[in-house]
Amino acid sequence: MKKIICILFTFVILLTSAFADKNRFYENGKVVDTMYVNSREGLRVRNEPSLKSNRLCGLVHRIPVKVVAIGRIEMIDGITAPWVEILIPRYEWKREEPEYGWVFGGYLVKEQPEFDSSNWDSAAVKNYLMSREWQMLVWYDNWGSVNFYENGRAEIIGKSMSSSKTWTFNYQILSGNRIKISNISDTQIRSHSIQQPPDSEIYNQTYTLEFSDNLHVRTKESSALDLFYYVPADFPELFTRRELYETDDFQWHSGNYYDNKQFRNYFEFYVYQKKRFNEIQDSDIQNFIKYGLSPEGTGYEQQYHDYWNPIMEEHQKKADDYL
Description:
This protein is of the alpha+beta class. The protein folds into three domains: 2-115, SH3 Domains (SH3 type barrels, Roll); 122-228, Lipocalin; 235-313, no CATH class. The chain has six helices and 17 strands. The chain has helices at 2-23, 122-130, 235-238, 265-276, 282-290, 301-320; strands at residues 26-27, 30-31, 34-37, 43-46, 55-59, 64-76, 79-87, 100-104, 108-109, 134-139, 142-148, 153-159, 164-174, 178-182, 205-213, 216-219, 227-228. The strands form four sheets. Strands 10-11-12-13-14-15-16-17 form an eight-stranded antiparallel beta sheet.
């Protein structure tokens, strides 16, 4: 009899724990709109709520995602949590129509994790450099885009008012956040004049990388490879790019009109800018909503829910079939 009571007690504890974990995906009886990836190794998106299903794409650490439905509970990596269906970020869509996938909810949190590079190993540094397109001053007052690739190659595309140029170089991430740079394809990088390039300042050198925050990467020994990351101002193209899904303490406007930690900033800022020039259109708002941007606390919140509530209800019914 005692053995049966013990088994029943254990079952109740496990069941209560499972439901407690599932409850964190709800607020006031409704599914949380936006959650953040909390996995330094990234998070795989799959076509079904199962580790055996196909991988669709990957999500980087700290990226926000639109939650669509909550699925069955499973224990993975010692974590008990439900599978969560999400709206795949716009930059991963194959066409114009929204695409959905499943992630393990054990690596989703309500608040965006703080940026912390203190325990990064060489692989983490490399993944971070490859995760976005950086900006770099390539000659006087002109910027270029910098991209790092898996094969140890990097590319700098610099543009000025009168010309443009592409450089390449090899890089290797060493221990202690050290980066070795070699085989620069040209010596004009870091020039103060495109007509008078200096001797290559970063050719065949090794530097220590410093990550001061989520927006800057600097080389400790010199300014040879100072990288900056920012959300560009080309609004019509912005919402198909990874930059849309990055949030941080970044001051959008000289006035403190926006809560900078909230995902809805992109919505508010875009609308604000467009209204200044009377260019805001219904299609702009519809795209924001379609891309999963939550305008919580704005005048467009009802439109967001009118669009997403029936979709989420339909997806939740399908998710229940997996239980």
